[in-house]
Amino acid sequence: xxxxxxxxxxxxxxxxxxxxxxxxxxxxxxxxxxxxxxxxxxxxxxxxxxxxxxxxxxxxxxxxxxxxxxxxxxxxxxxxxxxxxxxxxxxxxxxxxxxxxxxxxxxxxxxxxxxxxxxxxxxxxxxxxxxxxxxxxxxxxxxxxxxxxxxxxxxxxxxxxxxxxxxxxxxxxxxxxxxxxxx
Length: 183
Description:
The protein has seven helices and eight strands; from the N terminus they run αβαβαβαβββαββαα. The protein is an alpha+beta fold.
């Protein structure tokens, strides 16, 4: 839980949220486009094993979700805005699946480190639930653990512009042009 404790004690004024939106390559790239996001890192969140690898996570036995750690400047972009953008990039009623990717590691989730973020998480989650006829499959839980993914996964679509992505390319332009709001 070391990472969680560090997130709460940030001294630079920035905040963190951990979002699982299917394959982390596209999810990371999407959030990097949003003004006010100052850092991203892909990894594995809320699982039951120590030091998971991509190969381990793909077995469906570790209970980890492919997740993006998002560090943002709350003076430039608010959590509410980031969560609304998150819901634009996922199918919130799909269970253990986003696009063609299937498995528990591709489930969707919002993992928070600061308990004071929970009311905003709940508010946006309820707004989105009101738009759907079926129950949302998006977890909303405190972050239990996070392990950074291997280096070749970091900034994957920057390194491999033609690489696989479950998100439509238009979403990246949408994220880049979005006008962030603060809470």
